[in-house]
Amino acid sequence: MTLLISLVKSRWLQLGIVLTMLFLGTCYDKITWLRLYSFQTMPWNLDIVLIAAFFIYIGYLFFHTNYHWIENPAAIAGLVTLAGTLIVLYLNHDFNFQFSMKSHEIQSSLPKVLVLATIPLIFSFGVMGLSYLTAHFEGSFILATIGQHTMIIMYLHNALLDIASMAGIDNIATKVIVALIVPMLITLVKRPVTKNRSLYLDS
Questions:
Q1: Residue 104 φ then ψ, to 5°
Q2: Cα 163 from Cα 33, distance rounded (Å)
């Protein structure tokens, strides 16, 4: 990415190059001779590199231009509305979209390059806008508490979501609550145990 920005001065050309990389990264499943363990994939995770380059460049572009537009309430409202609309459409099965860079999975009922170039950015910028707003709210201790436990949530949420599915819990809201609350409860239970153990060790 540094090489691209250094050699290509035109931002429109830079954007064209990363869009082309995104297009190539989403088309590897059409190349029949690239196969690895029955999955169609580019060698050395090249498909992931091509896709990640697009998002890295958008992040670079965001912070090197007038990024204060994300603080505009109208922009935030528009992003949240778009994100909410996408969630409703997805829950109503009006379109399908699954994306995992780790497992090379891209499934969509719409053109892949289109959804990858829009949906992740809409949600990312929407979260950034909401974060800006909530930072100015008093008493936002719930979000602050979640923010203090992001590490354990990151490690446990997949396992908890799988356990919830095996337990027959299909409601998405319930799954999200389980994935957030249980790790925080584990941390709260662990603190007194750790404190008591340190007292015994000191004595």
A1: 60, 35
A2: 37
pTM of the model: 0.67
Q: What is the C-alpha to C-alpha distance for residues 52 and 133, in angstroms, rounded to an integer? A: 28
Per residue in 97-138, pLDDT (tens digit) is 888 777 767 777 888 888 888 899 999 999 888 888 887 776
Instruction: Give domain limits for the chain.
Output: 1-65, 70-137, 139-203
H helical segments located in 64-92: 73-91
- Which position has the token pair 């499934």? 107
119 vs 108: CA distance, rounded Å: 11
Count of Cβ atoms closer than 10 Å to residue 169 Cβ: 14
- Looking at the predicted structure, is the pLDDT value of residue 196 above 70? no
Q: Return the sign of the alpha-carbon dihedral for residues 12, 60, 101, 176.
A: negative
9 half-sphere exposure, CB direction, 13 A CA radius: 0
Residue 173 in tokens: 């809201």
* Residue that has been written with the tokens 């190349």 in this structure: 31
Chain segment 26-81, per-residue pLDDT in tens = 876 555 555 544 555 566 677 788 888 899 999 998 888 888 888 888 999 999 99
Q: No. of H helices and E strands in the chain?
A: 8, 4
Backbone torsion region of residue 98, taken as left when φ is above 0, otherwise alpha when ψ lies between -120 and 50, otherwise beta: beta
Radius of gyration of the chain (CA): 21
